[in-house]
């Protein structure tokens, strides 16, 4: 029997973003938690595909990849739009592959639900879209950059369209523990929103507050990585974990590294992992 105790952590990005935002996590966590970014169409290493504004075709491209990469115990993390995807993937892996995650991490959002017409923004003109998102502190990085906006905004609109049309299947109650995380200064998500994830799991729910605004995964990385280490890194057989809170591997903390619209798309192609994009990213 192998003594490999590593866990694969699938990471799904927030609306409009590329999964490349998770690459620094791989360098920090090392091989005990194998960070595996899940790229979406129309961004990152898939710039020539169209962003997908419909949930089912999007998941049809993602779930086979995740199932294929499930070569060890696994967990899922998603922020914002990524949390919706991570939850759906976890539920469908249970239904379709009899595979239960070690833990589901959802951050920056309450339980997804269909938005009322007054809250729908995906199809608004650009200036109004950004104004409405700005009121909630949810303008993604790059959306205001003239050089990056032509790529970010179509992906953003597609992701918002999926969120606004989403209806949760009440049968999708996962059998893994869930951690719901919110930023201490995120005015778009309340503690009650995060507590709502309780109805989505038959196991325990833990609610964590992380320092920062809605985009705390970009600014409070070390808090998140410490959480992943504490939850997912397990001692090898015959060894005992030292007392106290486990930490991100030595030499990888902040001190050591100082300085250092397709919404109407019917086909919604999701391309396979690009040869230039590592399917497995680990230090």
UniProtKB/TrEMBL annotation:
PANTHER family: S-ACYL FATTY ACID SYNTHASE THIOESTERASE, MEDIUM CHAIN, THIOESTERASE. Transmembrane segments: none annotated. This is Thioesterase domain-containing protein. It holds the Pfam family Thioesterase. Belongs to the thioesterase family. InterPro entries: AB_hydrolase_fold, TEII, Thioesterase. Residues 236-283 are annotated as: Disordered. Residues 245-258 have a biased composition (Low complexity). It comes from Streptomyces zaomyceticus.
């Amino acid at each position: 029997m192998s003594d490999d105790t590593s866990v694969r952590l699938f990471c799904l990005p927030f609306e409009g973003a590329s999964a490349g935002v998770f690459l620094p996590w791989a360098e920090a966590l090392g091989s005990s938690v194998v960070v595996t970014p899940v790229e979406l169409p129309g961004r990152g290493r898939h710039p020539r595909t169209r962003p997908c504004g419909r949930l089912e075709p999007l998941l049809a491209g993602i779930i086979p990849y995740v199932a294929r990469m499930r070569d060890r115990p696994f967990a899922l993390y998603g922020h914002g739009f990524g949390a919706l995807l991570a939850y759906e993937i976890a539920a469908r892996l249970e239904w379709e592959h009899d595979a239960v995650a070690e833990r589901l991490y959802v951050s920056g959002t309450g339980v997804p639900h269909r938005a009322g017409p007054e809250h729908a923004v995906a199809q608004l003109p650009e200036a109004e879209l950004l104004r409405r998102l700005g009121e909630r502190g949810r303008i993604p990085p790059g959306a205001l950059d003239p050089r990056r906006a032509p790529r970010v905004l179509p992906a953003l609109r597609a992701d918002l369209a999926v969120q606004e049309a989403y209806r949760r299947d009440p049968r999708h109650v996962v059998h893994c523990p869930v951690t719901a995380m919110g930023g201490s200064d995120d005015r778009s998500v309340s503690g009650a929103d995060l507590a709502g994830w309780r109805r989505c799991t038959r196991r325990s729910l833990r609610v964590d507050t992380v320092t920062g605004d809605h985009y705390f995964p970009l600014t409070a990385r070390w808090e998140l990585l410490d959480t992943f280490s504490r939850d997912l890194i397990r001692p090898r057989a015959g060894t005992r974990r030292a007392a106290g809170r486990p930490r991100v591997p030595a030499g990888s903390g902040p001190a050591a590294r100082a300085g250092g619209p397709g919404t109407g798309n019917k086909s919604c192609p999701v391309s396979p992992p690009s040869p230039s994009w590592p399917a497995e990213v680990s230090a």
